[in-house]
Amino acid sequence: MTVTNTPNGFNLNDAGRRVVVDPVTRIEGHMRCEVNIDDDNIIRNAISSGTMWRGLEVILKGRDPRDAWAFVQRICGVCTGTHALTSVRAVEDALKITIPENANSIRNLMQLSLQVQDHLVHFYHLHALDWVNPVNALKADPVATSALQQSISPHNPKSSPGYFRDTQNRLLKFVESGQLGPFKNGYWTNPAYLLPPEADLMAVTHYLEALDFQKDIMKIRTVFGGKDPHPNWLVGGVPCAINIDGVGANGAINMERLNLVSSIIDRTIAFIDQVYIPDLLAIAGFYKGWMYGGGISGQSLLSYGDIPDKANDYSASNLLMPRGAIINGDLTKVHEVDLTDPEQIKEFIPHSWYKYPDESLGLHPWDGVTEPNYKLGPNTKGDRTHIKELDEAAKYSWIKAPRWRGHAMEVGPLARYVIGYAQGNKEITEQINFVLKTLDVPVTALFSTLGRTAARGLEAQWAAGKMRYFMDKMIANIKSGDLATANVAKWDPETWPSSVKGVGFTEAPRGALGHWLKIENTKIANYQCVVPTTWNGSPRDEQGNIGAFEAALMNTKVERPEEPVEILRTLHSFDPCLACSTHIISPDGTELTQVKVR
Amino acid sequence: MNILLLGIGNVLWADEGFGVRVIERLQKSYRFPDGVNVMDGGTQGVYLVEHVQAADALVVFDAIDYGLSPGTLKRIENRDVPNFLGAKKMSLHQTGFQEVLAMAQMLGSYPRHLLLIGVQPEELDDYGGSLRPTVKAQIQPAIDMALAYLQAFGISAETTDTDGDLADPVLNIQRYELERPSAEQACRIGDERVLQAEGLAVRPPQPAGQPTLQVDVDYRGKY
């Protein structure tokens, strides 16, 4: 038995029974988590491990930096566009390329549309089933469901008893056909589910509505990116021309397409206001007593910021999505963040399966090294290919441990919202105050799993509003005669210096994303990504600080350890995506399908 | 009648890119009549639902591990497709695509005709690598299989000598292979080094203490 007090304030005790969850599902990528629970089923020790190996430099070294976006958007199936945007920004930073105003507006529209779509899909299709019980929905009275719907969202036209009865019949038919699909094998008898059947039916109905609706949002990226999935990007701007009087599908953006985008933005705003936010508040109302999962969100938060108002200005004051760092729980001071400062962001590996020349030191991403070193600690249980229990005193994850000035940080919607709140951002403060007032909870309620989920919904609402802002801004700019969408002055590699480095950043839906690259003799010499789930899913560091996932699981009561819905609930609230934070490895190197390490 | 020819997979993981490379060849060398959509679905999941819903007939190209010899093509139709995709999960997009099919069904529009053309991969753990020759050699047979299937719907394609526009020219297979960094330049045997790492000593399971509770929460399996 070991009892440890971590520098970031958690008391770890590994005496109790070990529960292993592997793989954690409904996320992108492969992740394992282990916890120790005490006699009262309360989590007293937590370990988060990425079970795949990564190494983006393996594919990008020596390639044309103008192509990097196409590779990085193939890393995974979720934040494709965000990686591409981060990549073109990194190249532009290195080569000092500026982009036209229209390109900035279009990129923001694409990025915001991704935020909205990703948040919506996360809430309804990846996270809702941690709170909503679709089997229970079959017991609901459609008349009572209709009354509930009308009480929480009076302007939502789809609220008749017949509408909910239809959904219930559809659900029943689906369940009876044996095609339970995404609803299969949930813990549907677990007492952790607290919604009455009517709320369950309402939420399941919106699960289907949201599935139908998210397809529309994607059309925004199809218009500007030329195609979807995998839209086109361009170093120096955007790859679409503007020809406002053009007709037909000649590839240029014309008035007809702008009108299409505009109408989708209006419908997006309405959907979030009338469906997403009311559902969020209604569901949260039933779970107000479940205030677990805060972890380090009340202490250490980081955001790089995003959505530049004017083109080419990446300073904090020009970024509409807030930027900064909060440490030691001091909300009165938001620290400035500089991605180029070698003293700020460093990656550590004492508990990660990598090798550094000196493992007590961290490395800034520009000096990043990714050399695998798969060693298991002496207290590992199991064998080489089937790990039963990891030894967290040794190396135990394929995720590195990034730290900001030595602090483990949480990134993502909650980090952005608390930072915005601490900075006195008017829109964010109003949204947060509205939620706190509606639910009648104190501001400290934000620092929880539910707070994380709420911040994501509020941010979707904010992002939809900002899409309207950039749409109007771009149309005004076009009307003033500016049709430029790309700057190709430095397209020719002959114009480039022989050795440069750059950094690009965005706020991906799940948190701060940075790409650091070096270009030598017109080719990529080094490329390092620090992705949001590297921050949140990080293992312990040299000092023993636990990461955001690990911290968030601490002190949570698990009703039924064999059905750890509480663990999933908290991990899902981060919207983890491991496809780019780690990469696949088969532990014995032979079995193609072996992705679990058990 | 709407027909969707859809390739799924990740081009960055060697034979995992089979489906996408089939689409590339189709875009380059074939012309289809209106109503036939040729799409590189990449690693996308839920974002493909719309396109699946809109199709009366759907042909999916993918790399699937069904335990046969590398390069073997397998043809699966209609109701067997979702079961097959869930039987042996090789990569994220397969569970994703199985769920895409279930979601399309829940939303009430599902292709009346569904064909999955899968190839048995030889190598996946080669990040940044391309198709192995045995798998690459199956691109044309997979296309021929799909074209024969489309004949039943009265659809035929024309071949063309002039290269068509590729959806993602930056990733076209020649450049992708030609411009790959050398092994010296960008160490690509990370996995191997992992497997050869020293000190991989694991203590045998310890009898003392309470037993570990293993929970498999991967509910997205077979259905």
TrEMBL record, chain A:
Subcellular location: Cell membrane
Membrane topology: Peripheral membrane protein
Cofactor(s) of this protein: Ni(2+); Fe cation
PROSITE patterns: NI_HGENASE_L_1, NI_HGENASE_L_2
EC id: 1.12.99.6
Residues given in the record as Ni(2+) binding sites: 76, 79, 577
One Pfam family of this chain: NiFeSe_Hases
Positions with a binding annotation for Mg(2+): 57, 583
Residue ranges of the TM segments: none
Broad class of enzyme this protein falls into: oxidoreductase
Primary location group: membrane
Binding site residues for Fe cation: 79, 580
Keyword set, alphabetical order: Iron, Magnesium, Metal-binding, Nickel, Oxidoreductase
GO terms for MF: ferredoxin hydrogenase activity; hydrogenase (acceptor) activity; nickel cation binding
A GO-annotated cellular component: plasma membrane
Catalysed conversion reaction: H2 + A = AH2
Assembly information from the UniProt record: Heterodimer of a large and a small subunit.
Function statement: This enzyme recycles the H(2) produced by nitrogenase to increase the production of ATP and to protect nitrogenase against inhibition or damage by O(2) under carbon- or phosphate-limited conditions.
Similarity comment text for this entry: Belongs to the [NiFe]/[NiFeSe] hydrogenase large subunit family.
Protein name per the record: Uptake hydrogenase large subunit
From TrEMBL, chain B:
Lineage top rank: taxon: Bacteria
Molecular function terms from GO: aspartic-type endopeptidase activity; enzyme activator activity; metal ion binding
Pfam families hit by this protein: HycI
One of the GO biological process terms: protein processing
InterPro entries associated with the record: Pept_A31_hyd_express, Pept_HybD-like_dom_sf, Peptidase_A31
PANTHER family, alphabetized: HYDROGENASE 1 MATURATION PROTEASE, HYDROGENASE 2 MATURATION PROTEASE
Protein family membership: Belongs to the peptidase A31 family.
Protein's UniProt name: Hydrogenase maturation protease
Organism: Methylobacter tundripaludum
